[in-house]
Amino acid sequence: MEQFYQLGWTLDSAGGASGEAYMAEQDGQKLFLKRNSNPFIAALSAEGIVPKLVWTKRIETGEVVTAQHWKNGRELTFNEMPQTRVTNLLKKIHSSKTLLNMLKRMEMEPITPEIMLSKINASLSREVWTHHVVRKALTYLEAHIPQLDPRFFTVVHGDVNHNNWLLSDHDELFLVDWEDAMIADPAIDIGMLLYNYVPESQWSDWLACYGVKETLDLQKRMKWYTVIQSIAVIQWYEDQKRFKDMNTWLEFLNEIMNHNAFI
């Protein structure tokens, strides 16, 4: 990012796991800069799902840098995640034909449960793979692979953690960090959001607001995807040697496995 310093911009890290995001400031103007950002960002900006895209530039290293309006604000809290505006924005994303067609033009192939299971099996360390809760979960995943026609797949964010929901000082809600975007079953996002943030007694109301019925098939798909994503998170924390967080997710995975055992 040296050339931005040379042009008189002040850069500060904007955090994030990638370390490639910056807050840039010059003459009172603030921008959010990101290296190697997903090219999907332009379509998301046009839909109002992320802060407005200002420009995209290829720098001397060959990397692509995107600049978006800087939004002062904060992440959503756990208690705010069940709010209707979160539900509505997620529904907007899953329903968007524009976003779906954009990913298809980028030649993105649908991610099926079989693909997800193959990837998770290939990614696990021996330490995670041999944990009794993970072994139980993997057996469950093999036996309950969801069946859904890929024609019903939508754009899926893939990481609806509350840290990725930005509420601006002007009360604008955005869903950011689209590096895991895919064409897949929307139950991937729905399951993780409900299991993590919404009391089960409110699931029917949440799903009604979203626009679907709480069927047994949907319950099975939500559980399956939440289990497999939880294993992926456990492996990530193990890779980062963040063992306390890893154990928290092992406990969460165990709770899911014991929840609605009949599905």
Automatic annotation (TrEMBL):
The keyword Transmembrane helix does not apply. InterPro entries: Aminoglycoside_PTrfase (IPR002575), CcrZ_PhaseVar_Mediator (IPR052077), Kinase-like_dom_sf (IPR011009). GO terms for molecular function: kinase activity. It holds the Pfam family APH. It comes from the Bacteria. Residues 14-210 form the Aminoglycoside phosphotransferase domain. Keywords: Kinase, Transferase. PANTHER family: CELL CYCLE REGULATOR CCRZ (PTHR40086:SF1), PHOSPHOTRANSFERASE YTMP-RELATED (PTHR40086). This is 3-deoxy-D-manno-octulosonic acid kinase. It comes from Staphylococcus pettenkoferi. The lineage of its organism: Bacteria, Bacillati, Bacillota, Bacilli, Bacillales.
